[in-house]
Amino acid sequence: MPVKNFLTPIQKKRLQKAIRESNCPRLREHALILLLQNDGKTYEEIADFIGCSYRTVAYWCVHGDPDNLDSLRDRREQGNYRKANESYIKSLLEVVKKEPRSLGYEFEIWTSQRLANHLAQLTGIEISATQVTRILRKHKVRLPMSRV
Q1: Residue 68 and residue 112 share a domain
Q2: Measured between alpha carbons, how far is 73 from 86 in angstroms, rounded to an integer?
Q3: Most CB atoms within 10 A, among 71, 83, 84, 140?
């Protein structure tokens, strides 16, 4: 039988407030998981009620910290380019405006892979070409089509 009422009144109020006021759906779901666990629900009952997987419930029951609401945030919201900090993104947005030849390259057009390689040399941060594309898309920057 699950442990009931393990949350302090302050933790419970904080989680309830997060459910009501947060604009992050995953944080709300993870807070609800902890509140249902506090009510004595099993992982299976919580998963059935919310409509998520048993593994999701088990993960957040173990890793969610009711004293730290940020621990309930799913890092996927930030995108997988967390390695690409503000400085990296700023450099990327500056480099993409320049002609590759002006930086000593023999090619005329930037591709995501070329940008990823150039920025890895420039910043020491290695990310995939796909991630570069996502960052550019988020900042509404389009690469020119290659000339054949």
Answers
A1: no
A2: 20
A3: 84
Burial of residue 127 (CB within 10 Å: 0-12, 13-18, 19+) is buried
Token pair in block for residue 1: 């039988």
SS (H, E, C) the chain: CCCCCCCCHHHHHHHHHHHHHCCCHHHHHHHHHHHHHHCCCCHHHHHHHHCCCHHHHHHHHHHCCCCCHHHHCCHHHHCCCCCCCHHHHHHHHHHCCCCHHHHCCCCCCCCHHHHHHHHHHHHCCCCCHHHHHHHHHHCCCCCCCCCC
pLDDT digits (tens, 9 = 90+) for 61-109: 998 999 998 888 876 555 544 578 889 999 999 999 999 999 999 999 9
- Which of 61, 146, 137 has the alpha carbon at shortest distance from 92? 137
Tell whether 110 is covered by a domain: yes
Tokens 């390259």, residue located: 105
